[in-house]
Amino acid sequence: MESVAESDGDVRAYEVVLRYIEAGILEGRYRNGGLLPPERDLAALLNVGRPAVREAMRVLATQGLIAASTGRGGGTRLVTAQDDALARMFRLHLAVAGQGITDLTETRIALERASAATAAKNATAEVIAELDEVLAAMRADTQIVTFNSLDTEFHVLIAQAGSNNLVADLTVAIREAVKEPIREASTEMTDWQAFRLSLIEEHQAIRDAIAAHDPDSAVALIEKHIRRAYQSLIGI
């Protein structure tokens, strides 16, 4: 009975550890790439058992916020892996919610409309060159998996051109969450190669609108592109 009580106490105690670390992040004590205190130090500081600290670390690892390393200079560090954690969350949303993919599509459209508008206002010659490079790679790539990765890269470049890393992370996360349904739908298409060429044409038009610093056209084109692609692939 005593061991059960201790276990229950540790389950509750791990939340104390989580709140402490979250407060440290918000207050700037712990920054990206910085080491967190060792397990034994956190346990002593917060007056909790070391199992509670380990449980808190497992939660943070699942959220994509920490990474552990061994050896000289090793330890538990804060890391930036938001896209992985967000993609995991969105995949679970898809599995639980019957209309999850529709929700994610509308979310993606809202995000990418904003990023396309900002990119069209701010895009530099370097950004346009990067978009051209991805477009050239897409024209040369006829494989579903690698082409879809290039497609994601194109949209991420647009989000990054708007100087919004969170939008870029969300763009990757949503694409990763629906990657498998898109792959399956692509393999079942009767003429995926024709669909691929149409996507390239639409990407070229979006690129041209951004290069022309025409936010209204860029916004309209990117929404039309996303809606048509999902309609063709998944029927939404």
In short:
This protein has 236 residues and is mainly alpha-helical. Helix content is 77%, strand content 3%.
Task: Please provide a written account of the structure.
The structure is a single chain. It is elongated, with a radius of gyration of 22 Å. It contains eleven helices and two strands; from the N terminus they run αααββαααααααα. It has a two-stranded antiparallel ribbon. The chain has 236 residues and is mainly alpha-helical. Helix 2 (39-46) packs across helix 3. The protein folds into two domains: 2-78, Orthogonal Bundle (Arc Repressor Mutant, subunit A); 83-234, Four Helix Bundle (Hemerythrin (Met), subunit A) (Up-down Bundle), CATH 1.20.120.
Q: In this structure, how is the largest beta sheet organized?
A: 2 strands, antiparallel
Order of helices and strands: HHHEEHHHHHHHH
Helix proportion of residues, in percent?
Answer: over 70%
Query: What is the overall silhouette?
Result: elongated
> What's the CATH superfamily of the largest domain, by name?
GntR ligand-binding domain-like
The structure class reads: mainly alpha
> So what's the CATH class of the largest domain?
Mainly Alpha
Distance between the termini: 55 Å
Cα radius of gyration in angstroms:
22 Å
Strand content: under 5%
- Whole-number average pLDDT? 84
* CATH fold assignment of the largest domain: Four Helix Bundle (Hemerythrin (Met), subunit A)
What low-confidence regions span 5 or more consecutive residues with pLDDT below 50? 1-11
Q: Numbering strands along the chain, what is their spatial order in the largest sheet?
A: 1-2
Q: Helical element count?
A: 11
Count of extended strands: 2
| Tally of discrete structural domains | 2
CATH architecture group name of the largest domain = Up-down Bundle
